[in-house]
Design brief:
Strand 2 and strand 3 form a beta hairpin. The chain has 207 residues and is an all-beta fold. The protein starts with 25 loop residues before the first strand and ends with a strand. It is built from no helices and 14 strands.
């Protein structure tokens, strides 16, 4: 008779769980931002193909954060009459959980050894004197901040503008906590007597 404690040879072996997907940096864009001005012009910002990837900073400092970003940002003005002048700005906001404010050394300088007088002419013999420095490095953190990094700002005359980014490096220093990143774009329609502004903010990605 078969041993009831023996494993069933016909029982299928569970497959290894699938490896987690590799982060390719793609970020889903939020819906287009749009507004209608009192004089009938519609301002729209539509992004696509956004990519955000962390990168090792060239400074190798632990308090630096660097990212590689890409994306296409379209701004458009739709209306009738004389076309206003447009200004289109694209950049990124970097959020830092804790920012390093000051670094200082707290401590003292001491002298170890037995100096003595000796020839010639009563010269001071320092012997094996040591000058130890005792203390500690103190970092004074402060609440995190948001840094705006402007990548491009374009003035145009017409009804549309486009800014395309490819593998752009952006960096922030003095960040010792977790960091987050999101894109932003601002479209301004400037007429003779008025300005109308619409802003877009992308999905926040935490690193």
């Amino acid at each position: 008779d078969p041993d009831p404690a023996a494993p069933d040879a016909a029982q299928p072996v569970a497959a290894d769980p699938a490896a987690p997907p590799v982060d390719d940096g793609r970020v889903a864009s939020t819906p287009p931002a749009t507004t209608k001005s009192p004089d009938g012009w519609t301002l729209t910002i539509a992004p696509k193909d956004e990519v955000q990837m962390p990168a090792a900073p060239l400074t190798t400092a632990l308090s630096s954060r660097e990212y590689i970003v890409s994306g296409t940002f379209n701004g458009s003005l739709d209306g009738s009459g004389d076309s206003p002048k447009g200004v289109f700005e694209v950049g990124y906001q970097i959020g830092c959980g804790v920012e390093m404010d000051k670094v200082k050394l707290n401590g003292s300088l001491g002298i170890n050894g037995n100096p003595s007088l000796s020839a010639p002419a009563g010269a001071l013999n320092l012997g094996a004197l040591q000058f130890p420095i005792q203390g500690q490095i103190e970092v004074e953190p402060r609440p995190g901040t948001i840094t705006d990094v402007v990548v491009d700002k374009k003035t145009f005359k017409g009804t549309s503008a486009r800014i395309t980014l490819k593998d752009i490096h952006i960096k922030v220093d003095n960040c010792v906590g977790a960091s987050s990143l999101r894109s932003y774009a601002v479209l301004t329609s400037s007429g003779t007597d008025a300005d109308d502004i619409v802003a877009y903010y992308g999905v926040t990605k935490v690193f």
